[in-house]
Amino acid sequence: MRLIIKNNYKECAKWTADYIAGKIHSAAPTPEKPFVIGLPTGSTPLGVYERLIELNRKGLISFQNVITFNMDEYVGLDENHPQSYHYFMWQNFFSKIDIKKENVHILDGTTEDLQKECENYEKMIKEAGGIDLFLGGCGNDGHIAFNEPGSSLTSYTRMKTLTEDTIKANARFFDGDCTKVPKTALTVGIGTITDAKEVLIMMTGLAKADALQHAVEESVSQMWPVTILQMHKSALIITDDECTDKLRVGTVKYFKGIESKITDSFESIFSNK
Ligand code: GLP
Predict the structure, then answer these.
(1) Biological process GO terms, please (predicted)?
(2) What is the pTM of this model?
(3) What is the residue range of 208's domain?
(4) Separation of CA 198 and ligand 1 centre (Å)
(5) What atom of ligand 1 comes closest to residue 40's alpha carbon?
(6) How far is the CA of 45 from the centre of ligand 1 (A)?
(7) Is residue 38 in contact with ligand 1, taking CB distance under 6 Å?
(8) CA-CA to 226 of 20 to 30 Å: which in 23, 134, 157, 232?
(9) Residue 166 pLDDT
(10) Which residue among 88, 107, 138, 168 is best mutated to probe the pocket of ligand 1, counting the most ligand atoms within 8 A of its Cβ?
(11) pLDDT value at residue 233
């Protein structure tokens, strides 16, 4: 696992976006062989989306042959609900880039047969050739997508009940009112995420310090779903100094030392643009 530690959120977001742009660039996707990416919502990826929009507007990267699969969606919120993840994605990203509408996939939490919706989602991911890169955020309790603590580490897309902690954390998007937060969501499973060829999780800020400490220093555990990254062949966590608060000084030094010797190829293409 790579652990990239940047000074602050802004640097993390830029690095992540440039990294993704580099992956799309080197894959040189075509309609026959598109680049398939898994995407999150939440406040964490916002800066990444802003930077990707900028690179797209500057003509440095195109999403014409990119297929996306979002991680999750609340049950019961239709796509026009301002707190639905459909709305979030179109508002903050898709409407501002050159992606084709038919290449965007987001679970529908309003459909009658939710189980079929989940099964079909997995089928579509397979048909697209699997996910090349899954970008994710992480909850304060280590959840990824809506795979709450206790989720099966080999799960696939299904409906999950949100924990009280997640409902409280997400109430900030619902006028601070927990009663307005849906109690269930459709979510890709942990297996869906780890089946991706590469997984990149962004964790920034002090509130995620415990989750980062578990992800990097503790054992794999269903109670901290993000720890599953330790089992992945190509996993990367990008974080900021603040979030490393609970890591051992030696751990921070170790990963900073490794990264100081690595120059990623995308850096020469996008970093100064
Ligand atoms: C929600 C989403 C997750 C996201 C998490 C953290 O629970 N389902 O995908 O990673 O929130 O959100 P934020 O980035 O706002 O901290």
Answers:
(1) carbohydrate metabolic process; glucosamine catabolic process; N-acetylglucosamine catabolic process; N-acetylneuraminate catabolic process
(2) 0.96
(3) 2-271
(4) 19
(5) 9
(6) 9
(7) no
(8) 23
(9) 87
(10) 138
(11) 97
Alpha carbon of 273 to ligand 1 centroid (Å) = 29
Residue for token digits 């050739």? 129
Nearest to 186 by CA among 24, 73, 56: 73
Could you list the active site residues?
Answer: 72, 141, 143, 148
Q: What is the per-residue pLDDT across 169-187, written as a single tens digit (0 to 9) for each?
A: 899 999 999 999 999 999 9
CA 56 to chain centre: 19
73 with 109: CB under 8 angstroms?
A: yes
CATH number of the domain that residue 124 is part of? 3.40.50.1360
Say how many domains are in the chain: 1
Contact residues for 13 (Cβ-Cβ < 8 A; gap 6+): 45, 46, 47, 48, 50, 51, 202
Q: Which two tokens stand for residue 31?
A: 């309609």
| Distance in angstroms (rounded) separating the CA atoms of residues 66 and 53 | 14
Could you tell me if 38 and 133 are in contact, meaning their C-beta atoms sit under 8 angstroms apart? yes
Residue 137 CA: nearest ligand 1 atom is: 10
